[in-house]
Amino acid sequence: MQMFLKEASVRRMLLNQRGITLIEMMVAITVGLILLAGIVELFVTNKQAYRIQEGTNVLNENARYALNQIEYSLRLADHWGGVKGPDLTVDPGIAAIPLNCAASPVLSGTGITGFDGTSANSPLSCIPNADYQANTDMIVLRYASPPQFSLRNIPAASIVPLSKQIMVRTAIGRRGMIYQAEDAAALFANGAGSIQDLRDQTNTEAPDYISNQRFNFEVYFIRQCSSQDRGTANVCDGQDDAIPTLTRLVLDTDGATLVQQDIIAGVEQMQVSYGLDTNGDLTADQYQNAATITDANNWDKVVDVRLSLILRNLERDQTMPPDTNTYRLYGGAAGAGETYTAPVAVQKFRRKLINSSIQVRNLIRG
Length: 366
Fold this sequence. Notes:
The protein contains five helices and 14 strands. By secondary structure, the protein is of the alpha+beta class. Strands 1, 2, 3, 4, 5, 6, 7 and 8 form an eight-stranded mixed sheet that branches. Strands 10-9-11-14 form a four-stranded antiparallel sheet. Strands 12-13 form a two-stranded antiparallel sheet.
């Protein structure tokens, strides 16, 4: 009897078991899809936040690097080993530099000059129009290498092997000459017009007052592309990218070639104003643009540089609204400033504006 009851109980239990109904399955799928959508949304949001944070970090790092490079050169501008720029002469025997910068000759004792941006052609002939980013300023710097890199008090026989490198030989507190290394033997010889020791007429100065340092010429400008390798070599053209790049043009060690060096990609604007010391107190009394200073021949009075850079990410961000901001930059006549709004075609990039005031140390002389 008990066996029969057990079998009947098992039979009833089996008869009462049912599968999942269609409605239950649809409810389960719906709940699962809602949970999955939430997880996907969380993932997308976190990824977007990460991209924004990463882009901000890259902009900040690029801004610091670009500014450090320009600051370093500005602090060296007009360093001539113990003499002033006007006390330098240029050896007429130096071979001509084929790609000279007509409006600002390479070989000169002027430590700093600048050029206001134009909407068409490059302000300098040594920078092709195809490379130049319209409406951006340029800074031209010249200086002798710092003492730790100098070649001090070495005989002509040791300088000549440097071949065509452009050098600066100075007698501290007196005068100096820009010359080519391969001409050192003849220039250092005694005789009329020589720079044997650059001594005074009594010829009593100690040799320790003489130094030989490498001459440096640099132009900071914004180039239209970051790579010049896809189309015509060494020129930005339609086959290259359109990423504006902070670039430095330098005089190579052959003493004749000007070479472009990429500093950082994504710099689309540079504006500069220059602080003039008009009363001799070694501080800036007024700020002017490059054109005004050039007209007044006041480059030797520049003691401070106000610099504005606008950087952008290298990748377009389609999730952001168009950047229609009007950025206020240094520059302009009488320090009135310049404004910049990104063209419509590139408004989907995140940007950063940095402003800095940089003292030109070697032009502050008591």
